[in-house]
Amino acid sequence: MTKITDNSDWRINYVPVDSKITWDEYFMLQAMLASYKSKDPNTKVGCVIVDDHNHQITMGYNGTIAGIDETLIPWGNNREVPLEHQKYGYVIHSEANAISHARGSLTGAKVYVTLFPCNECAKLLASHRVREIIYLSDKYHDTPENRIAKKIFQMSKISYRQLSLSSNTVEYFSDYLKSLLK
User: How far is CA 150 from the centre of its chain?
Assistant: First the structure.
């Protein structure tokens, strides 16, 4: 090993680095991964909540009450049958799940969620004083629940915006995951 004697030679060990993804993409990819854990056959949703230093506070996915046998849940989404025979009577939304697992305050936090929150989750998030919602999909944008959620956020001064992940980001992440398996 060569000993560096000249003070300018130390720079040889410094190389330029950067990340392939932004903080928004990083946390949305985490929310997407959380959604993968959901057993819901129709709608898988993940949520990650971070503080203003980009440290993860909590995460959740839509699922059932912890500790119960999920095979006993009626996972169908037919709203014409009685509520006890619908998933809606049993499933906890990803945002509520994340909030219930948080160990500290969510005041000022950012919420990354794969599906725009419903009005019930909007009430919870507003009550916990989060400051921003970053969502991937807004597939229920025409529903009364969605309009109410947006009104709750507006009244609570909670900003919200949609994040579009580029196909390059998704492809890079997929390739990276595959490389880890080699």
Answer: 18
- Secondary structure (H, E, C), the chain: CCCCCCHHHHHHHCCCCCCCCCHHHHHHHHHHHHHHCCCCCCCCCEEEEECCCCCEEEEEECECCCCCCHHHCCCCCCCCCCHHHCHHHCCECHHHHHHHHCCCCCCCCEEEEEECCCHHHHHHHHHCCCCEEEEEECCCCCCHHHHHHHHHHHHCCCEEEECCCCHHHHHHHHHHHHHHCC
Contact (Cβ atoms closer than 8 angstroms) between residue 46 and residue 39: no
pLDDT digits (tens, 9 = 90+) for 67-97: 999 899 999 889 999 999 999 999 999 999 9
Exposure letters 107-136 (e unless 16+ CB within 10 A, then b): eebbbbbbbbbbbebbebbbebebbbbbbb
The per-residue pLDDT for range 132-143, each reduced to its tens digit, is 999 999 999 999
DSSP single-letter state for residue 88: G
Which of helix, strand or coil describes residue 36? helix
Has 95 been annotated as catalytic?
yes
One of 70, 80, 95, 132 is an active-site residue; which one?
Answer: 95
